[in-house]
Write a structure and sequence with these properties.
By secondary structure, the chain is of the alpha+beta class. Helix content is 31%, strand content 23%. It is built from 13 helices and 18 strands. The chain has helices at residues 10-22, 74-83, 108-113, 121-124, 159-163, 197-209, 222-228, 247-261, 272-283, 308-316, 344-354, 365-370, 379-392, and strands at residues 4-5, 27-30, 46-49, 56-60, 65-69, 86-87, 131-138, 143-147, 171-179, 181-182, 186-193, 216-220, 238-245, 266-270, 298-302, 321-326, 331-336, 357-362. The strands form five sheets. It has a five-stranded antiparallel sheet. A four-stranded antiparallel sheet has the order 12-13-11-14, sandwiched between helices. A hairpin with a 4-residue loop joins strand 7 and strand 8. The longest helix is centred in the middle third of the chain and has 15 residues, at 247-261. The model has no long low-confidence stretch (mean pLDDT 94).
């Protein structure tokens, strides 16, 4: 058979997995390939190309629900929702340019399998929080389904939440159902300039504690702000706070937030058009996509916002690093100079002290094969992870070893 299998129906997927299992073959699951370079290099015999499973199956704007085949391009779904004044509230990141590929290369199944989200995570949750149900095929070659078209519709295990973030190691998604929400009428961004990292984290915490309903809170140190092209030529850092909703509400809240932030530094406003572009750059980590830094490793670190500046201080004190803070300091993107281990030992030490998880997002395949890409699991959790994998995929047919060796 060819090195690539391209099913067009759920039945085709079932037969492909059964065939691979019967021959002891392993399958690499791919949609449009936009996230193929994340994780440990493929240890597979064949590629299962799911881009043929494309198309919206059901969309009921009044019910805030959409079902689509898993290989449906994400940009097509977002365009359909925009035409009805709706959106995916979890604001999924587009990894295309960060990984050196084309933008707008994601699929809805890939978004859910990787549990992607963007700056609005602090207000709306991650992809799994909007994942209502799916149909799929396990590594046993058995078709099954979980959930449905409403939020409260199941008893027992919510398998959708388990599959989200499993990176295709448990099941092949064939059809997914997600919750949609009304798109905010307008938005604006309050910008505080010139803050050091620790002060910026305090400012973002103060903003989140107000009644202003901040839907995005990020900090770009001066070097990253200059690299971003966000309109700063002053060599100063930028701390960014987004407000969304209907126009009268946004106007009222931005006045309140401006007053609250003046205690931290110089404050200005960005209007709707500038704000949308700005948060698109933060979502996709655009400052780290320039050609002159495309070979540098990039880490995604999730930690307690109150420990973010401390963690960065530990890393930056030992290596050349550029950082971008999102989620009010709870998500930190770190770009390091190239090294044999992509800075893994340094990053892991800092995370062990401050708490959290670190994922190596961008690095050469040889490096990703030699170091832990995802955070190492403590023995009890690692044992549970293996048992779950065994239950869904006892023969290791689906993306074996992508997250952890031997899983």
């Amino acid at each position: 058979m060819a090195d690539t299998l391209k099913p067009h129906t759920a039945k085709d997927v079932e037969e492909a997995v059964q065939w691979a299992r019967s021959r002891g073959a392993a399958l690499e699951l791919v949609g449009r390939g936009g996230k193929r370079a994340i994780g440990r290099p493929a240890q597979t015999d064949l590629t299962l190309d799911l881009s043929g499973l494309s198309g919206v199956v059901l969309y009921e704007p009044e019910e805030l629900v959409l079902s689509a085949q898993a290989g449906t391009p994400l940009d097509e779904i977002e365009a359909l929702l925009a035409a009805k004044g709706q959106h995916l509230a979890f604001e999924p990141i587009d990894y295309g340019r960060l990984l050196g590929g084309a933008p707008l290369s994601g699929t809805i199944g890939g978004v859910l399998a990787a549990n992607l989200c963007g700056p609005r995570r602090i207000a709306a949750g991650a992809a799994r929080d909007h994942f209502l149900g799916f149909e799929g095929v396990s590594g046993r070659g058995e078709s099954f389904k979980s959930g449905g078209r409403v939020v409260k519709n199941v008893t027992g295990y919510d398998v959708s939440k388990l599959v989200a973030g499993s990176w295709g190691t448990l099941a092949v998604l064939t059809t997914v159902t997600i919750k949609t929400l009304p798109r905010p009428q307008t938005q604006a961004t309050v910008v505080v300039s010139g803050l050091d990292d620790a002060t910026a984290v305090r400012a973002m915490a103060a903003a989140m504690a107000t009644s202003c309903d901040v839907s995005g809170a990020a900090h770009l140190p001066a070097a990253v702000a200059a690299r971003s092209g966000l309109g700063t030529a002053t060599g100063r850092s930028l701390t960014l706070l987004r407000l969304e909703g209907v126009a009268p509400s946004v106007d009222h809240r931005k006045a309140t937030l401006l007053a609250a932030m003046k205690a931290f530094g110089a404050v200005e406003l960005r209007d709707e058009e500038a704000s949308r572009g700005l948060w698109g750059e933060i979502r996709d980590v655009t400052p780290f996509t320039a050609a002159d830094v495309s070979g540098r490793p990039v880490w995604r670190i999730v930690t307690a916002p109150s420990r973010g500046a401390e963690l960065v201080g530990m890393v930056a004190g030992a290596a050349e690093a550029e950082v971008l803070y999102d989620w009010a300091g709870g998500l930190i993107w770190v770009m390091l100079a190239p090294s044999d281990d992509a800075g893994a030992a340094l990053i892991r030490r800092a995370v062990n002290v401050c708490g959290g998880q670190a994922t190596l997002i961008r690095a050469p395949a040889a490096t990703r094969a030699a170091v832990d890409v995802f955070s190492p699991q403590e023995p009890g959790l690692a044992s549970l992870t293996k048992r779950v994998k065994q239950g869904f995929d006892p023969n290791g047919v689906l993306n074996p070893g992508r997250m952890w060796a031997g899983v």
